[in-house]
Amino acid sequence: MQLYSEADVDTSCLQDKQVTILGYGSQGRAHALNLKDSGFNVVVGLRKNGGSWARAVADGLTVKEPVEAVKEATIIAFLTPDMVQKSLYETVLPHIPQGATLLFAHGFAVHFKQIDPRPDLNVVLIAPKGPGGLVRRQYEEGHGVPCLVAIHKDADGNALKLALAYAAGIGGARAGVIETTFAEETETDLFGEQAVLCGGATELIVAGFETLVEAGYQPEVAYYEVMHELKLIVDLLHEGGLRKMHEFISDTAAWGDMISGPRVVDDNSRAAMKAILTDIQDGTFARNWVAENENGMPEFKRMMNADLEHPIEKVGKDLRSRMDWLEG
Ligand code: NAD
Ligand code: MG
Fold this sequence. Notes:
single chain; alpha/beta; 9-stranded mixed beta sheet; 9 strands; 56% helix; globular; binds magnesium ion
């Protein structure tokens, strides 16, 4: 494993150079503010009538329309939703200076060939391993969120140097920057969110809730058991892995964990994980997701509504409103 820390970074390559951030959402806002506070010259590129424009101005940043924002840029970071990056790239392409560096926080558009970058451009990835809010908060507290770095195209021999300078600017080098490839970052990121973090975890929660409610237990008790308490366990795992969780749960919980966990995540679940990974690797997932977007996202909206209308959402809303210490 190749790990870079602050000592490996030379930020002078970005001295007096412009870094353009396209998009001002979760990652865009965090990167723009951190880079500015690190002393870099930051311009944010947004649609004039878009909702983020006023916010970026209020945050004290220089804001221009995308085409204007890229004209003087040394680095152009694409921090819009993945599905918007292709058309945005095509819009700004004629205005991108020769030899500039395109930077992504997730490899989707490049790895799945939505974007085929002009040959003179460096193409790099700096992917923080955390949401934008955390990237900003950790930076303000003097820390950083670890990042991945990957180089898709090193057109001028400076791609890695520039990518690491950017990673340092957002605070990532304080925590360490691990080298990867666009393929590894994209495929593992999609697998993680589908099989474990988002898809796997929520399906597990909902199935547990339904099992208890169908067996006649109160929905409120089921909610506390399978949704609310999950955070306590995840915090232990995050801080100290399996060992820390086992130190804090009872022996009865640990015994139940070890004999029953493998009954839920069994050979069928593992085969499903492999099938999910295959769909990601062979491009099936990307093709279907791009087609769904081009179609106006009917399936996305239908499934999202079903998720948001599930009974666990109603009972959860009522119970959370009584816990005023929760951030709503
Ligand atoms: P987001 O949805 O939070 O923000 C999108 C921003 O793009 C908004 O400011 C929006 O106004 C702007 N935008 C949308 N369409 C635009 C257009 N046509 N032209 C200009 N601006 C436009 O996005 P995000 O979640 O921060 O994701 C940005 C990138 O970061 C993605 O590649 C994503 O995969 C990656 N990423 C996200 C996270 C995360 O935690 N959210 C973590 C790691 C990597
Ligand atoms: Mg789900």
